[in-house]
Design brief:
The complex is a heterodimer.
Chain A lengths: L1 H21 L13
Chain B lengths: L1 H12 L10 H6 L4 H30 L8 H23 L1 H7 L10 H12 L4 H29 L11 H16 L4
Helix pairs in contact in B: 1-7, 3-4, 3-6, 3-7, 4-5, 4-6, 6-7
The chains are: A mainly alpha, B mainly alpha.
Chain lengths: 35, 188
């Protein structure tokens, strides 16, 4: 059970970190501002 | 002595790129410029060492006691993704020039199979925590060594008289093959 909780927790953490690091998900590293 | 031997084996004789063919994608994609090559190598060293230690902890402290070792690939992948994401945030904040020059290649470290490969090899070979640290350091520095040497060779190949059909990827792969022969020679 703990293993499954760990997987879900890590998935949420990875999603959160990527969202925070890349900002707009449409962005591919360009400098343009998105809405 | 055993740890030193493990380090040099991982670095040279059993180089993760040239003997296990892991991490070829970033090696070929990011070795055109020497500067970018060693920066990518350093980021891989950081990610591999940190991810293998954290994966080791999760595997032996959570997955083994709860008998859910079949989830290890998922746990390792998400661990690597979290570390790379954090690394990207740190680079974006403290080293904007590096972030600009590397761009999309930073999150692509997540898909570098050498990173996942080291985490899995550590578990498969039942290494201890100290051995894990030494093996991760050796493997990742092996990647750094190969990507840097390969980028210098590629820079020389730019102006070398090479037949038209061999230019670009074909000559790069032939060069990698010769490098693999040289590196594995250390293990004989």
């Amino acid at each position: 059970m703990m293993g499954y909780v760990l997987v879900v927790a890590l998935f949420l953490l990875a999603t959160l970190v990527f969202k925070k690091s890349r900002g707009c998900t449409q962005c591919r590293g360009c400098d343009k501002k998105h809405d | 002595m055993k740890l030193i031997s493990l380090f040099f084996t991982a670095l040279l004789a059993e180089n993760i790129v040239l003997t296990k063919f892991l991490g070829l994608c970033p090696l070929l994609g990011n070795s055109r410029r020497e500067e970018n090559a060693y920066k990518m190598g350093l980021m891989v060293v950081f990610t591999v060492v940190l991810s293998s230690l954290i994966s080791y902890f999760f595997y032996y402290q959570i997955l083994v006691p709860t008998n859910t070792t079949h989830l290890r690939t998922l746990v390792f992948i998400f661990t690597i993704a979290s570390i790379v994401g954090s690394l990207e945030i740190l680079i974006k904040r403290y080293m904007p020039s590096l972030y600009k020059s590397m761009g999309l290649y930073i999150p692509l470290i997540t898909t570098n199979c050498a990173v996942l490969g080291v985490s899995i090899l550590v578990i498969d070979n039942a290494l201890s925590l100290v051995e894990t640290l030494v093996y991760a350091l050796g493997s990742s520095m092996g990647f750094l060594l190969v990507i840097y040497v390969f980028s210098t060779l590629r820079a020389k190949m730019e102006n070398a008289p090479i037949l038209e059909g061999f230019r670009g990827t074909p000559i790069a792969l032939i060069t990698l093959g010769i490098m693999a022969l040289l590196f594995t020679r250390y293990g004989l």
